[in-house]
Every structure is written in structure tokens, then in C-alpha cells.
Amino acid sequence: MPRLRRPSLLFLGVLTLWACRGARHQDPASRALRYEQLKADAATLRPRAEALRKVRALQRWRLLTGKQPAQRQRPQWISFRALARLRLLENNPRTSDARRRALRLQRLFLTREHMDQWPKLQLDLDRMIHARGRADDAGLSRLEQGLQRQRRLHRRAAGKLGLTLVHLEQEHLELDLPALLARSWRVVWSSDKLWATVRARLTSGHLNVGQLQRLRAGGDAAALLPADQQLPAARRLLSSLGLKLSGAVKAGPRAAAVVIGPGDVRLVTGAAPGLLGQVELLEAAGRAVCLARGPAAWELATLGQRLGPRTLGHLLGLIWLESGWRARHGAQLAEGVATGERLAALGRHRVLANLVRQRLWLASLSSQSVMAGYRLVDSPKKDDSRAAFWREAHRSHLPFRSKLGPRYIALLPLSAPPLDLRVHVLAHMLLGRLRARHGAAWYANPQLGPWLLERLCARGSVGHRKLLKGLGYKELDMAAPAKNLKQAWKEAQLKADR
Q1: Residue 381 pLDDT exceeds 60
Q2: Where are the alpha helices (DSSP H) in 71-131?
Q3: Pick the residue with more confidence: 9 or 448?
Q4: Inter-axis angle of helices 177-189 and 340-371, to 10 degrees?
Q5: What is the DSSP track for 453-489?
Q6: Which of 62, 69, 215, 304 is deepest in the core (most CB within 10 A)?
Q7: pLDDT of 147
Q8: Helices in 339-461 by DSSP H: which ranges?
Q9: Whole-number pLDDT of residue 47
């Protein structure tokens, strides 16, 4: 019979209702006993969760460094009942704020382990786009089918946890999706004129997936940033800021930071020459340095969205907008290689890459919103993610000709690290602040590195509002990226870097 198809959902609903009703009428001694029982269950679960996370991190390390990891097995000891009890302890008024955050991160990690196929999907996307350099119809179809299966698993898991799919998605992303989408349009609108100018100068007016990859790579930049100079260039920037890498460093197909545990953070250097390879390495190195400075609690050090480490990494990646840094890098190369015009071209391509990234993220966010169950304010009642993409791509002036465009955008949430406009905006806010307070050569101040570590990294995985407060901000300034990009474009246009 239909009502017997989901006995666990019925059982969990009755159990939760009974628990909530009973809790209101329990005497203090009974409530204290229940709290201790929840704590004991969580204490039993915690070391197993920590060991599982370490296994997953080591598997990722082996994969990124070219070794075949062991077959990924879904742990059988995770149950929806255990996850529900973690949530009860998390929401108990006796639980401290710090412990509540750790419990939440642990619960979200175990929830994903119980139901997700994302690691395999991420690997498939990485192989298709970055190894082969292009997106094809058959490859996208396989990934779309995988995402559809994943979404069905999410919907089923959300029901068993007593949540809607929308709430489950928001928990994992740690953001208010519709509120962020409503504000994010200012990022695009504030740079519309610059976007038109840059497109007219650097593109043919239309974009496809392959062109996006080439533009992000910075054009013909391999001679300025050869593969064997990528890591030394990254170390020079870290050193000038008073930072240094610790932990293992190995080569792999793509740059990445892998946190095995508190104090054990490893860096994969990547093998791509050119500007894209250098930016990816700088972003990964920034995350690695930041994660190594994290707290001792493994949940806060290794789980969550890691907005602080990602912001530091993104800030370091923005260094190629600075004409002074480009000139400083050019002085390290052989005479005649780094001409002023070629260095200025790097700056122009970084402006373009930032503008494209903003618009890709916004179009992707719109698709995610529809897939998660939101209906956009100005959309028809019957909507789907592909229609949402085309509408938002048009509004954000993404001139895709290829039909693969919207399908590629819909898969961007699989990218690792994931695109996040909050990180992008906050990094640009910091860049503007550092320029104003420390001058155009802010990157040569060795006191700034420790300050950034203290503000972005010391507390581990915190929400973006606490991160903003720790930096002295009240909210995200969505116009900050446009201000920096306009200045960088003007500098790269008026004169060649010297």
C-alpha cells in the first residue's frame, strides 16, 4: 500500500512529535537525563565520523596526486535516526554555541556521506573539462543523469530528516539562497559598462565553453608563467606577505589544498602553465596556509564551507590585477620575455576572467535556485533550470551561442572548490581595504599575512556573517568587485606595465 512505502518517514515523524511533546512536560531531572543520553550518543559517533573524514581526505589526496584510491564505500553505521539525534542535541538549549557549530558541521558531513554521489560526479566533470579541455554532449548527459539521481537522493533524505529539499540545500550551502540571489544582481549591474568594453576588446562577442576555458587561462601566457615557475612564484607572494607553506607538497593535474586533519594540510601544485594555472595554485596555497592555522577541533578545522580559507585564497589570486606585482614578477624572467605589453595583457585577461566568473556564478545560482524548488520572482509558474539559465544569462549578458552553455552552467556547482559569490565579493572588499590602508604595494607588507590569518583562519569554519563581523564589516558590498576591476582595467589600458 502507498502509505507503507516510507515507514521510516512515518516513524521519524511520530518519534519527533512524541519527543517534542514529551520534552515540554518532562521534569528537570528527566530533561537532564535525556540531554546526557544525547551527549553519550554523540560522543560515540564523533571518533567514527573523524576517522571517516580522514579516510575521505586521504582518498582525495591519492586521487589528486595521480594514485588510484580505494573503492569508495558507503558507511553502514550512519542512520537517519543517528542524524536526527545529533540534530536534537544541536538544538538543545544546554549546548554551547561552539559545540552547536561543531555538531552541525558533523551532522551535515555525515548526511552527505549517507546519501551523496558528489565526489564521483566532481571527478567526472574534472576529467571532461580540465583533462580534455572541452565539454561534449555525451559527457554532459552522463553528468546530468548523475545530478538527477543525486537530487532524488537529496529529496528522499530531506523527507526522512523531516525537512524540505530547499532547507536541506540551504543547510549544506550555509546560505539563504533567494536572499543572496536578490542582492547578487548588483555585482553584475555595477560592472555592465566595463563588461561591454572588455568583451569588445578581448572577445569576438560570443562565447562558448571552450572559449571560456581559454580566456580564463589568460591567452598566450605560458611563456610568462611556465609550469616549472608556478610554485616559486607562489612562494614569493606568500613570503612577501609574511606567510609560508607547511606540510607535504606534491605535483598533480590540478592545484588543490587537502586538509587531512588539524595541523596536516597538503598542497597539490598542479601542472597547467599560464595564468589560470598560477591563479589556481595561488588560491590553493592560500587555502592551505589558512587551513593550517585553524583550530584544534577537527570539525571546525576540516568541515563546512571554509569561507575564510577560500577568501584568503581568492585574495591571493587577485594579485594579478596589480600592475606592480606583474612588473615584479616580470623582473624574475629572462630579459626580453616579460615585455610591458605582455604583462599588461595578463592584467586585462584577469579583469575579463573576474567578470566572466561573476556572471557564470549568477547564472548557476539561478539554476540551483529553481532546481532546489524556488520559483524566481519574475519567472513563469512552470519553470525549469534550463529556462532559468537562459533568462539569467541574457540579463547578465553572457553571449552563449552553443546549446551546451546552459548545461555546462548547471553543472558548475560540482566544481571544486565551488564557485561562491560571497567569497568573491569579500576578497574584493579586502583588496580595496588593503590598497587604501597600505598603498599599491600592499602585497610587500610582511605584517599583513599574520593579520589575515588571525581574521580569516583562526576560528576555523564559521558562517559568513561572523566572518564579516570579525573583519569589521556589517554586510557584503556588492559593488566592491566593480570598483577594483575598473581600476585594474584602466591601469592596464593607459600604459604597459613597467
Answers
A1: no
A2: 80-90, 97-115, 118-126
A3: 448
A4: 150
A5: HHHHTTT-S--HHHHHHHTT-SS--TTHHHHHHHHHH
A6: 304
A7: 66
A8: 340-371, 385-395, 404-410, 421-438, 448-456
A9: 95
C-beta pairs of 204-207 under 8 Å, 24+ apart in sequence: 205/399, 206/399, 206/400, 206/401, 207/356, 207/398, 207/399, 207/400, 207/401, 207/405
The ranges assigned to domains in the chain are 1-115, 119-169, 178-494
**479 contacts: CB under 8 Å, gap ≥ 6:** 186, 187, 190
Task: Identify the sign of the CA torsion 485, 304, 370, 181.
Answer: negative
User: What is the distance between the alpha carbons of residues 415 and 419, in angstroms, rounded to a whole number?
Assistant: 7
Q: How far apart are CA 30 and CA 27, in angstroms?
A: 5
Tell me the C-alpha to C-alpha distance, in Å, between residue 373 and each of 184, 361, 383, 420. 19, 18, 10, 20
Query: In 3-state terms, the chain is what percent helix, strand and coil (to 5)?
Result: 65, 5, 30
Tell me the pLDDT tens digit for each residue of 243-283: 999 889 998 888 899 999 888 999 999 877 788 888 889 99
More confident call, 21 vs 473: 473
The DSSP code sequence of 198-219 is HHHHHS-S-B-HHHHHHHHTTS
Residue 393 clears pLDDT 80, i.e. is over it: no
Q: 481 is written with which cell numbers?
A: 568587485
Q: CATH topology for 178-494?
A: Neurolysin; domain 3 (1.10.1370)
Q: How far apart are CA 155 and CA 166, in angstroms?
A: 9
